[in-house]
């Protein structure tokens, strides 16, 4: 919808989420979509550090007015990793005025970050407030079925037969992002090509031994549930139950919040792990 109507209701568009979840890919896709519909549109994509570098260069060359004209004449400004503006006061000041000028001109602004706008430390409150004026979208880690589909598609693109149970085995253990999934599969394929062995679960265990060992050391939902239940002197079964009494509801909310913060599970997966709750109840 942003590509169809840049500068419309979803302005600015703010995408946030962890590394490797496809924010940059989505940013490029929207930019390309705008150009496809309006070939003469001036769409500028850059990393936030490039904006800072351009501004510093303009100041050094006494060309700040040219800098302003360039950035304020675009039809769409796409900036990746806006959190790198943190503690750069002059850059934030200039971007604040650029942001206002673009918004007043109905020119599209799309930003990405690794965290929710109000959680970006070192960025002025007036900017963080403006980041949320349009549409803010959380990019969540892919769910299990999606991870399996990604692996199967990637294997198919490489003309590799990947058994479904093997794809499920990998997807169940690597949850953080698409980049990690694809990297793991590339390693499995390379090992299979080098050794001439078939891709089985045992083969994957061997090929990804260090990666799987690292995953086992990470915080899990099971560990969180056990720790919270022990702290509040209740049973894990209580956390998974439908009980809504304060003595259970509060620990449950705490456990779900910790699962969201400390694990790479998607919200639907966290909801499922707590008795099949709707993911919208995960705080």
3D architecture notes:
By secondary structure, the protein is of the alpha/beta class. It folds into three domains: 13-138, P-loop containing nucleotide triphosphate hydrolases (Rossmann fold, 3-Layer(aba) Sandwich); 144-217, Orthogonal Bundle (Helicase, Ruva Protein, domain 3), CATH 1.10.8.60; 221-281, Orthogonal Bundle (Chromosomal Replication Initiator Protein Dnaa, Chain: A). It has helices spanning 23-37, 48-60, 64-72, 89-104, 125-131, 144-157, 164-173, 178-195, 201-207, 209-217, 221-232, 236-240, 246-262, 267-273; strands at residues 13-16, 43-47, 76-80, 108-113, 135-138. A five-stranded parallel beta sheet has the order 2-3-4-1-5, with helices on both faces. The radius of gyration is 23 Å and the shape is globular. The model has no long low-confidence stretch (mean pLDDT 90). It holds the Pfam family Hda_lid.
């Amino acid at each position: 919808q942003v590509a169809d109507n840049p500068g419309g209701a979803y302005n600015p568009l703010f995408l946030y989420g962890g590394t490797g979840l496809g924010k940059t890919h989505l940013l490029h896709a929207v930019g390309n979509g705008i150009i496809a519909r309006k070939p003469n549109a001036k769409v500028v994509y850059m990393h936030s550090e490039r904006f800072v570098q351009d501004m510093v260069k303009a100041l050094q060359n006494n060309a700040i007015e040219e800098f302003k004209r360039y950035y304020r004449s675009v039809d769409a400004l796409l900036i990746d990793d806006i959190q790198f503006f943190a503690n750069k006061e002059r850059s934030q000041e200039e971007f604040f005025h650029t942001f206002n000028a673009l918004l007043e001109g109905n020119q599209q602004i799309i930003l990405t970050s690794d965290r929710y706008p109000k959680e970006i430390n070192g960025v002025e409150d007036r900017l963080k407030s403006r980041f949320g004026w349009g549409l803010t979208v959380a990019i969540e880690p892919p769910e299990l079925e999606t991870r399996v589909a990604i692996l199967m598609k990637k294997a198919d693109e490489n003309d590799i037969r990947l058994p479904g149970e093997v794809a499920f085995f990998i997807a169940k253990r690597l949850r953080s992002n698409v980049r990690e999934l694809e990297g793991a599969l590339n390693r499995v394929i390379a090992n299979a090509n080098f050794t001439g062995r078939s891709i089985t679960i045992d083969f994957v265990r061997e090929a990804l031994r260090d990666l799987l060992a690292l995953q086992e050391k990470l915080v899990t939902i099971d560990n969180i549930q056990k720790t919270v239940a022990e702290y509040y002197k209740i049973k894990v079964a209580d956390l998974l139950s439908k009980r809504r009494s304060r003595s259970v509801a509060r620990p449950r909310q705490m456990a779900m919040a910790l699962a969201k913060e400390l694990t790479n599970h998607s919200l639907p997966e966290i909801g499922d792990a707590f008795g099949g709750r709707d993911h919208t109840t995960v705080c």
